Amino acid sequence: MEDNTLISDNDIVEEKFLDCRINGQVPKDRSVRLRVMPEQSNDYRVVVFGAGGVGKSSLVLRFVRGTFRESYIPTIEDTYRQVISCNKQVCTLQITDTTGSHQFPAMQRLSISKGHAFILVYSITSRQSLEELKPIYDEIIEIKHDLEHIPVMLVGNKCDEINREVPTSECAELAKRWNCAFLETSAKTNHNVKELFQELLQLEKRRTMSLQLETKKTKSQKRKEKLKGKCNLM
Ligand SMILES: Nc1nc2c(ncn2[C@@H]2O[C@H](COP(=O)(O)OP(=O)(O)OP(=O)(O)O)[C@@H](O)[C@H]2O)c(=O)[nH]1
Ligand SMILES: [Mg+2]
Q: Closest ligand 1 atom, CA of 187?
């Protein structure tokens, strides 16, 4: 049975490994397993895309765990969960950290169709990594048809590095054309990492989303607060 109980703030639910069919077919390589999270109806699914090594996992791990590692361990696909507020209710932010290897196009399409919002990451030190975002963007458009109601952030990571290949102004222009928001980040120095997720949630206009939990107060909480307000120090 799936455990659908609510989790506490900043908790990360363990990933579950399941054999998975992609487009109805078992992957040829049986060792390829998708990490599938138990679904919840109020999950808000964010998918992180970008070329290998641009720092997708580093951004996600910096955000959910507050950590950074110098070593590079390529990802197949990982999903993390964090409790957030949605329409003043508790909801789960589900972040899928994808592979940059382009080896699993079916997984990419599945992630796009299930995703509510997207983070497109390139490295400011690699023009090639920016070029690699274009087909991903095209595929999002193809699957979702219209980006008007879909939050998308274009993110230039590694902005702490001095060997820049991609000027900021160029991507600000590109973001306008792609009708999405744009930020430069550094997972290493923790520059703009929380802001990235905050801005993404603010772009969601169909729900009121916030990283802070501001759930509805119970009647007794409201009464207590009212009483507190009436107390004077003698
Ligand atoms: N200087 C600097 N290095 C970074 C930054 N973010 C990540 N790195 C380094 O870049 C390398 C790749 O980072 P990952 O987060 O694993 O990259 P990825 O995009 O998840 O790569 P794949 O999983 O293969 O797609 C690691 O050695 C990180 O330490 C950053 O903001 N600045
Ligand atoms: Mg990774």
A: 31
Most informative mutation of 47, 58, 76, 183 for ligand 1 (most atoms within 8 A of CB): 58
Question: Residue 166 and residue 172: Cα distance in Å, rounded?
Answer: 11
Q: Tell me if 156 CB under 6 Å of ligand 1.
A: no
Domain contains 234: no
Residue indicated by tokens 């909801």: 91
Per-residue pLDDT tens for 217-228?
Answer: 566 666 766 665
Record the tokens describing residue 211, joined without a space: 């990283």
Range of the domain at 30: 12-227
- CATH number of the domain residue 102 falls in: 3.40.50.300
Kindly report, residue by residue over 83-131, the tens digit of the pLDDT: 998 888 889 999 999 999 978 889 999 999 999 999 999 999 999 999 9
102 lines ligand 1 (CB under 6 A): no
Inform me whether the pLDDT recorded for 23 exceeds 80.
Answer: no
Residue 61 lies in a domain: yes
Rounded to 10 deg, the angle between the 193-203 and 56-65 helix axes is 90
